[in-house]
Specification:
single chain, 300 residues, mainly alpha, 2 domains, two-stranded parallel sheet, 2 strands, 58% helix, globular, EF-hand domain-containing protein, signal, secreted, EF_Hand_1_Ca_BS
């Protein structure tokens, strides 16, 4: 299903959220244009950035982050990386600066009702729906932190064998975690459908897998990648990043249900990429003649 269709369905599903916001007078009119993001032309010096998170001490003051803690909110991302990518360094997980995707949807929807374009008799009704959907899609797509960066080494046979061996426990943990979560998703979908993202069992479930994904991500960052394996490693990196980001967004589904809905779709769709990921590694092993047979079967 295309992202536009998924988000349009989310649009309809979140009408209930819109009603809740409306009756409780919790609309927030925020604009990213009103939020300044300090940008420096070069990395700050060590003395001016004691925690090496990419933010100078003055920038730490601006964002009210901890100058002695590179990851103030403890979500696995450096404060500087979150700021550069448009995320709030004080809120765990990937929460956009200036409000959530749902906040944007609610504000746009309210504006459409007020000025009349979202009234059913408006000649611009369907165009307004499309504009709102497009805006939310742009926000979702812009809110993707790049895949995990990784150190590289020369493409010697020894380095390639070390690389594959170091990946074994990571592959094992990743596949067990992903399929273990997928096996339980039906129950969680029922909970979400009946009780919403604010249900304590739903939050606990995705919090557990957020922590598991974060630990896998941290182990993954230490792997030294042979230059000739960069393409395959980037595929794996994207899988790890998507697994981590999706669970992080789902954990916060009660405050951003549209982004959580998209993340749920992404988590389910990841199953389709597992066979191609496995095949990419098996084919590369064969091409490089590394003498490793049935690599994934050897992961115990």
């Amino acid at each position: 299903m295309e992202l536009r269709i998924k988000l349009f369905l989310a649009f309809l599903a979140v009408i209930a959220v819109f009603a809740l916001y409306k009756t409780s007078s919790k609309f927030r009119f925020l604009s990213l244009a009103d939020v300044g993001i300090p940008v420096t032309s070069q990395l700050p010096g060590v003395n001016n950035d004691p925690d090496n998170d990419g933010l100078t001490n003055s920038e730490e003051d601006y964002w009210t982050t901890n100058p002695n803690n590179a990851d103030t909110d403890g979500d696995g991302y450096l404060d500087g990386d979150e700021v550069v990518n448009g995320y709030d360094p004080l809120i765990s997980g990937l929460t956009p600066i200036g409000g959530s995707v749902t906040d944007q949807f609610v504000n746009l929807t309210l504006s459409g009702f007020v000025e009349g374009s979202l009234k059913e008799d408006s000649p611009n009704y369907f165009q307004s729906l499309d504009d709102i959907t497009s805006s939310v899609i742009d926000r979702v797509e812009a809110g993707q932190i790049a895949s995990i960066e990784f150190p590289t080494v020369q493409s010697t046979r020894e380095n390639q064998q070390i690389y594959l061996e170091s990946l074994k426990p990571i592959f094992k943990d990743l596949l067990i975690a992903y399929y273990g979560e997928a096996y339980q998703l039906i129950d969680q979908l029922e909970n979400i459908g009946a009780k919403g993202f604010s249900n304590s069992e739903v939050i606990s479930f995705f919090s557990q897998y957020t922590n598991i994904a974060l630990n896998i991500s941290r182990s993954f960052q230490d792997v030294k990648v042979p230059e000739n394996w960069k393409k395959e490693h980037e595929i794996l990196s994207s899988f790890v990043t998507n697994f981590r980001n999706s669970n992080s967004s789902l954990q916060k589904g009660q405050v951003d249900p549209i982004n959580a809905t998209n993340s749920l779709n992404a988590l389910i769709d990841m199953a389709e990429s597992v066979p191609s990921l496995v095949e990419a590694y098996e084919q590369k092993i064969k091409k490089e003649e590394l003498g490793v047979k049935n690599y994934f079967q050897s992961i115990q």
